User: Fold 3-hydroxyacyl-[acyl-carrier-protein] dehydratase FabA from Martelella mediterranea DSM 17316.
Amino acid sequence: MSTRQSQFDYEDIIKCAEGELFGPGNAQLPLPPMLMVHRITEISETGGAHDKGFIRAEYDVAPDDWYFACHFKGNPIMPGCLGLDGMWQLTGFFLGWLGEEGRGMALSTGEVKFKGMVRPSVKLLEYGIDFKRVMRGRLVLGTADGWLKADGEMIYQASDLRVGLSKDKAE
Assistant:
């Protein structure tokens, strides 16, 4: 069993976004404001809904987050695509955490269900990513199911999130 770090605080998350956590040319998270994760509370290569590994993470919502001012005037909500992107961000993070090399890229998802909204009154988003498969070949590919809770209420679910790692150089 691995002795890799199993929790990451905001400082660690920013190191990942700056390309320092997994090394140059490897998986990175985006920098704020596109960063949709503030901490990883638990990560494991075993367990989860499919016993192939999982991540649990959190994001602190602030009433003045940038997206509320523009989406939508008079009816502020976080765009659903940002929650979905957070799921992809975590899927790619997992591949880098496993020690796989290459830059992450979201490839696809199966089905996405939105059952609620993130409004400025929400305080905490919780992510769950449960891995179904990690393929290690010319392309490293992670496939997972994910969910998002807003203040404890399940509001998004996604199946077959796919993220790959490419060894192509950045331009």
